[in-house]
C-alpha cells in the first residue's frame, strides 16, 4: 500500500503485505534483534511506522489474540522515542486513544461519539449508549510495549471495513459496520479503501506524535485532552483486578500516572493501575 499522505508526515513508513505482528516486527527492527530487510531499517528514527492489512498472529492486552480477515483492518505500530517529562509511559496508551479518537470522529455523523474506554480501547457510541453510560462498541485496540532503551512501540488494530457478519465479538464494530462515511470503500485492496487507510493512519500518527511532544512541556494540557476523550470518566463501572477481586464504583478521574480513580459506594476510592473495567448498564 502506498500510504502517500502518511509518508509525507512521518520520517519512515514500512508497509508489509503480511506480518505476524507489527509490534513484534517493529520491536525486532528497532532493537536490531531481527534482520533488516530494507536498507536503513537497522536504525529507526522516532516516528517510524510499520503497518499491514494482514496481521496473522497479533495479540492484544493480556495476551488476547487479535486476528482479522485480510484487507478489512489495519495493524499499525509506531515507534516513540524520548517520551518523558512529567508523564510516564503509562500515559501513552491513553494519548494514543485520544489521538485515534480525533482521527476517526470526522467519519461519523451527529449523535455518534468516538472516545477512549480506559485503559486502551477506542469505542464509538450513539446517543442511547451515552444516556445509559455504555461505552458503545470497540473500533480500535491499543497495545504499548516498552523497550529497554526507554522507547515505546505503540501498536493499534483498527477495524475499518469489517462487515457486521465478520466482527469477532458482539462488542466489536468497524467504521463500515457502524455506519461511518468510508467513501464507498469495501476492501483495503481497492483504491477507496487504501485512501481511507492512508487518511486514518496519517491523522492518527501525526496527532499522537504531536501530543507526545506537547506532553514534555505541557503535561496538564495533555492530561485534560485525554480526559475530554474519555468515555469512562463519570460512569458507573465494575473493576476486575488481576488478582480476581471485583469492585463497583464511579470512575472519577485519572491519577498522575494515568491510573483510573474510582469512587467506591462505601466511601473511599480505588486507584486502578491494571485490570479490566466494565461499564455498568
UniProtKB/TrEMBL annotation:
InterPro entries per record: aa-tRNA-synth_II/BPL/LPL, Biotin_CoA_COase_ligase, BPL_C, BPL_LPL_catalytic, Transcriptional_repressor_C
Enzyme class: ligase
Any GO MF annotation of the entry: biotin--[biotin carboxyl-carrier protein] ligase activity
Annotated ranges, domain BPL/LPL catalytic: 20-208
E.C. numbers: 6.3.4.15
Keyword Metal-binding appears in the UniProt entry: no
Protein name: biotin--[biotin carboxyl-carrier protein] ligase
Amino acid at each position: 500500500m502506498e500510504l502517500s499522505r502518511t509518508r509525507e508526515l512521518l520520517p519512515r513508513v514500512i508497509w508489509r503485505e503480511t506480518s505476524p505482528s507489527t509490534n513484534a516486527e517493529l520491536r525486532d527492527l528497532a532493537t536490531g534483534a531481527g534482520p533488516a530487510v530494507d536498507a536503513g531499517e537497522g536504525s529507526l528514527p522516532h516516528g517510524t511506522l510499520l503497518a499491514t492489512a494482514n496481521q496473522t498472529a497479533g495479540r492484544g492486552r493480556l495476551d488476547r489474540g487479535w486476528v482479522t480477515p485480510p484487507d478489512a483492518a489495519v495493524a499499525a505500530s509506531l515507534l516513540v522515542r524520548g517520551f518523558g517529562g512529567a508523564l510516564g509511559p503509562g500515559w501513552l496508551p491513553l494519548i494514543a486513544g485520544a489521538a485515534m479518537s480525533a482521527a476517526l470522529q470526522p467519519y461519523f455523523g451527529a449523535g455518534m461519539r468516538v472516545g477512549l474506554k480506559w485503559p486502551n480501547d477506542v469505542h464509538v457510541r450513539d446517543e442511547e449508549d451515552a444516556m445509559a453510560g455504555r461505552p458503545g462498541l470497540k473500533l480500535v485496540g491499543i497495545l504499548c510495549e516498552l523497550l529497554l532503551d526507554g522507547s515505546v512501540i505503540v501498536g493499534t488494530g483498527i477495524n475499518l471495513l469489517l462487515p457486521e457478519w465478520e466482527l469477532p465479538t458482539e462488542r466489536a464494530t468497524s467504521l463500515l459496520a457502524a455506519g461511518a462515511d468510508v467513501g464507498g470503500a469495501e476492501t483495503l485492496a481497492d483504491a477507496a479503501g487504501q485512501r481511507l487507510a492512508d487518511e486514518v493512519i496519517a491523522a492518527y500518527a501525526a496527532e499522537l506524535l504531536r501530543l507526545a511532544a506537547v506532553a514534555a512541556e505541557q503535561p496538564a494540557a495533555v492530561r485534560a485532552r485525554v480526559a475530554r476523550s474519555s468515555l469512562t470518566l463519570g460512569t458507573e463501572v465494575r473493576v476486575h483486578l488481576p488478582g480476581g477481586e471485583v469492585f463497583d464504583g464511579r470512575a472519577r478521574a485519572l491519577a498522575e500516572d494515568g491510573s483510573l480513580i474510582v469512587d467506591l459506594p462505601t466511601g473511599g476510592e480505588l486507584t486502578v493501575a491494571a485490570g479490566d473495567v466494565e461499564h455498568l448498564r
